[in-house]
Amino acid sequence: MSFRTLGHVRVPAPGLILDDVRGAQKMLAGVARCTPMEGSRHLTHLVGSPVHLKCENLQRTGSFKLRGAYIRIAGLSPEERAAGVVAASAGNHAQGVALASSLLGVRSTVFMPVGAPLPKVAATREYGAEVRLHGQVVDETLAAAQQYARRTGAVFIHPFDHPDVIAGQGTVGLEILEQCPEVRTIVVGVGGGGLAAGVAVAVKVLRPDVRIVGVQAEGAASYPPSLAAGRPVALESVQTMADGIKVGRPGDVPFALVEELVDEVRTVSEDELSSALLLCLERAKLVVEPAGASPVAALLSRPESFEGPVVAVLSGGNVDPLLMQRTLRHGMAAAGRYLSLRLRLTDRPGALANLLGVLSVVDANVVDVSHARTDPRLGLTEVEVEVQLETKGPEHCAEVRGALREAGYRVVS
């Protein structure tokens, strides 16, 4: 493959990568699914033009990662295959490498953080990888995997910073053009940038008129400062529930392509991610992880700014059940459908019954009640009560708070 210099790094020209994407599509036939595209009536109404969801959450292993991992491993020499492969991941890349290796008859070792969700660890093992738990954060896990590669000669399979991986992920873009040839805007989540770079190459070379919008979580948004600097910039810290795009530094190869081909990179908040995940579950009947819901979060945030038809790539659905529970509750709170309040009451018989009576009048459904009597901040005759309520939206939340104030209750939070 011929390379040219773009910015500070040598990368293949987009036209050459497109040839590789087409080759990858042939190699992935019978391996990766051509995932369905579903229309979203709710998002279509918000945006004012058709919105379609590209369901990579329904891909084998639950995310797009199988595509790039398979193409990368399939391209190894017989000697490299004999040495085995090693990867580091908290979940999606781990499962993609494990299954791709098993399909190709290559031994795989995957390093995962000690705190990785148990379902993801179990799935990676079931796909055939030897799993080693190491480190509390992904950076420590990555260092351990790279050290293992140096020690054993195993080939390190990077999750996004390699042309073969980008070519594999680019097959998502080819499928979008085949399934929705009238598309005007494609919205895709961005972590290290492999998926966005691959989709942008496949689409922009064939359809330069299509707008590509990348989306990052506010707490892990490495691309905006990197694009401003003209080179990959590492964040000092990353913090987001969206572990699939929780990457502190763009990859060199994908960054160069994103810089050249992606029209815009936006950020979304944790509240917006939670609301998007809730919408996917309730309205589209799709289980999507926070990273996979990031394009939907962008659509919810500024629906008027997208030219349709729009395709939003739901990149994965591997969400830990405990995280799903917390995220859905967070999303319900952001939508005004879940309200948590702490109130000070006089500690006497009937006080709680009176409070519940007020809540009943305004039709707030009580989910949980807890008491605190020993807090040093409380007066001698005071008790603090925390109530968890199901509500019907922001206006209903305001009505509940107003009714409590009128009844003389002191709402602490």
UniProtKB/TrEMBL annotation:
This is L-threonine dehydratase catabolic TdcB. One of its GO terms (biological process) is L-serine catabolic process. Its EC number is 4.3.1.19. Belongs to the serine/threonine dehydratase family. CDD domains: ACT_ThrD-II-like, Thr-dehyd. It is an enzyme of class 4 (lyase). Keywords: Allosteric enzyme, Amino-acid biosynthesis, Branched-chain amino acid biosynthesis, Isoleucine biosynthesis, Lyase, Pyridoxal phosphate.
